[in-house]
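Quick one from the shared queue. A colleague (R.T.) flagged Lipoprotein as missing a structural entry in our internal table.

Convert sequence to structure tokens.
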Amino acid sequence: MKQPLLYLSLLVMISCGDTYTSSSPAKQKYLDSLNNSIVTGQLNKEAWAKTPESIAGHFFPNISQPAGGNKRYSITIQPVSAKECILSITDEGALDDDEILGERHEMNFQLHEGRWKIIKLVNSYKRRF
């Protein structure tokens, strides 16, 4: 009798894995707005506007959760070349929405005239069911 319960438990654990559903890439108008903010931050010598990691953290910050909530926040970088990289920002845990268990934002950056520019942004969501 314990084996069917074990198999059922494993099946539930596997089905609750790291499954994210992507939305379509952000529209160019939104990317232009983000890039204008980056340029303004760089002109004002703001620390957040210097590297792809700090830019990603500025636009998608690690927001503290109420006590007791499990939380995972990470920024990972994948270099493509000396002038291009892809960042993934993963934010999982006690979010305000009962249906959404996590968010992932994938940002493609290019170094253009000495400034980092977002050339693509795709948001993904991990849903409860």
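Confidence is low (pLDDT under 50) at residues 4-16.
Strands lie at 21-22, 71-81, 84-93, 100-112, 115-127.
Added to the table.
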